[in-house]
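Posting for a labmate who doesn't have an account.
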Amino acid sequence: MLSKFTKHIITSQLIIYIIRCVIGFLIGYSLMIRFPEYELFWSLLSIILVISPEGKDTRRLTIERVKSNLIGSVVGLICLFINSPTVLLLVLGIVFAIIICYLFKVMNMSRVAIVAFLIIMLQTHTMDESIAPIVRFATVTLGCFIGLSVVIVTSISIKNLKKRFKIDSPI
């Protein structure tokens, strides 16, 4: 018989979110330490940003966060190719990121897009000025996909555990 404690672990939103964040952090931190020349802190940040604490619709919300993160990153990359950051360009980029989130129906995640945009536009860097925005875009994108992968893998594992232990199954 399944103990209440084991059932609680398998079904607790809090525990599942903690596990996802710890797994995502360990992956991102390992990459950041192993490849310090690529500013992978932004991957680590993106991993945590896209992992959803909500139990219901976790995959959908994570995918929406990935989309909005990519929207902000692309807007930032385009703005950097237009001109170096100015207050006007930053404001326009924020406005465009919000509008694009609205058009892609991820308005509830527009703050994630704005954060990604600001990362691309404002982060100081230690590498060549000409490739830094592209590397930041790549590291943010990498973080999004790692975070999404963590959510998908843990969702499959949780679903299998629930099935194995007959949790939420009709009697």
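Reply:
Got it, the structure tokens are right above this. Helices lie at 4-11, 13-34, 41-50, 58-82, 87-103, 110-122, 132-164.
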